[in-house]
Automatic annotation (TrEMBL):
Alphabetical list of Gene3D superfamilies matching this protein: 3.40.47.10
Domain Thiolase N-terminal: 4-207
InterPro entries tied to this protein: Thiolase, Thiolase-like, Thiolase_C_2, Thiolase_N
A Pfam short name: Thiolase_N
Domain Thiolase C-terminal: 282-398
Protein name: Thiolase family protein
Source taxon at top rank: Bacteria
Organism of this sequence: Ruegeria aquimaris
Length: 412
């Protein structure tokens, strides 16, 4: 089986763009990725278009990829539409890898795009309402929120303004972690502050203002222990990656020095488990499988991008990825171990909290950052000597964990 490489990446700025359509952003990201790879659209053998909410927001429930990609000359090839909630783009990336591994071509395209921001706030926030079993959504939401029962919510720690119901779910995960391991709100704030500092040096990030731990704690509350800077914003944006086989790089005359090897690409769905059984969290199991496939361990990882839809997500995921023991994610974050220059830099892009979270594009946005880091092209946010990188991206909720999760390992 041939080795697979990322040979080109492209990404739009993430943010709120009233004047840009999903076609505009997809075109920008794909053009950048093709240019970065040094290939033209007619050399793509298969394309995977990831999107989660265009049907909800615009009524385009079907053939989204065929429509948006034809305008940039990508036609007459297999185009697969991918929806896997917030893990859509990383799922599409894995499918693009598997397409090449199966011998279906030399070159594939993975692209994710999302147009989420709207002046209709009810429409915008309700885009997340089907990220779980809608047949008993209220019951599911309450059960997940109740995970943190027993942790007192201080008066005034809940926002009077509308916000995504998923924030209540993440707050439940946070309070369960606090109750189980003694994690503190200050430790979650340290994650958010670190990511906001990182994003200052990312020109494509939605927010680029540094924040201190005290500023994060003093910010408007969402739902305890989460304050506004601890939560990913609503975002528009797109990201794309061009992948090639080793033989394809030779046939297309591409520069092998800028090709980044895909060492592992794992997709798992969740399982029924007790909420306290962290060792069987789907991301933990996916990470173990990815390390085995890549032939390395967590100690070999130079840099990571993880799914921090809220700060608690980063704490949980650095434990699942094996960077620290279970329960040590909060203290390690407060000690600065996950900042650029620390023991294991996490989310040098600024993460979802600062870079932004256009859900259908997020996973390939992570790939964009890691490829940039492994090439040594990240500028002021560069992790020195980056050799192996890992991305974790989760989507939806089922039971007491994400419905789906992807773990991807890239390396020189």
């Amino acid at each position: 089986m041939q080795d697979i490489y990322v040979v080109g990446v492209g990404m739009t700025p993430f943010g709120k763009f009233r004047d840009k359509t999903i076609k505009d952003m997809t075109g920008e990201a794909v053009a950048a990725a093709l240019s970065d790879a040094g290939v033209t659209a007619d050399r793509i053998d298969g394309a995977f278009f990831s999107n989660a909410v265009q049907g909800h927001m615009e009524g385009q429930h079907m053939i989204r990829g065929e429509i948006v990609l034809r305008e940039m000359g990508i036609q007459g090839i297999p185009v697969v539409n991918v929806e896997n909630a917030c893990a859509s783009a990383s799922t599409g990336f894995k499918l693009a890898v598997d397409f090449l591994k199966a011998g279906n071509g030399d070159c594939s395209l993975a692209v994710g795009a999302e147009k989420m921001y709207s002046d209709d706030r009810a429409l915008m926030f309700s885009a997340f309402d089907s990220g779980w079993d809608v047949s008993n959504g209220e019951e599911v939401a309450q059960r997940l929120a109740d995970l943190g029962a027993g942790v007192e919510e201080p008066e005034g720690s809940k926002s009077p303004k509308p916000y995504s119901v998923f924030m209540d779910v993440y707050a439940g995960f946070a309070r369960l972690h606090m109750k189980t391991f003694g994690t503190t709100q200050e430790q979650f704030a340290a994650v958010a502050a670190k990511n906001h500092v990182h994003s200052v040096h990312n020109p494509l990030a939605q927010y680029r203002e540094a924040m201190s731990v005290d500023q994060v704690l003093a910010a408007p509350p969402i739902t305890y222990p989460l304050t506004l800077p601890m939560c990913a914003p609503i975002s528009d944006g797109a990201a794309a990656a061009v992948l090639c086989t080793g033989e394809g790089i030779k046939r297309l005359g591409l520069d092998p020095a800028r090709a980044i090897k895909v060492k592992a690409a794992i997709l798992r769905s969740g399982t029924d488990r007790p909420p306290e059984d962290y060792k069987n969290h789907l991301t933990r199991l996916a990470a173990l499988e990815a390390y085995e496939q890549a032939g390395i361990g967590p100690e070999d990882i130079s840099v990571a991008e993880v799914h921090d839809a809220t700060a608690v997500g980063e704490v949980i995921q650095i434990e699942n990825l094996g960077f620290v023991e279970f329960g040590e994610g909060g203290p390690a974050s407060l000690r600065g171990e996950t900042k650029i220059g620390g023991r294991i830099p996490v989310n040098p892009s600024g993460g979802l909290e600062s870079k932004g979270h256009p859900v259908g594009a997020t996973g390939i946005g992570q790939v964009f950052e890691l490829v940039t880091q492994l090439r040594g092209e990240a500028g002021a946010r560069q992790v020195e000597g980056a050799k192996n990188a890992i991305a974790e991206n989760g989507g939806g909720l089922h039971g007491v964990e994400e419905a789906a999760a992807c773990v991807t390992i890239l390396g020189r």
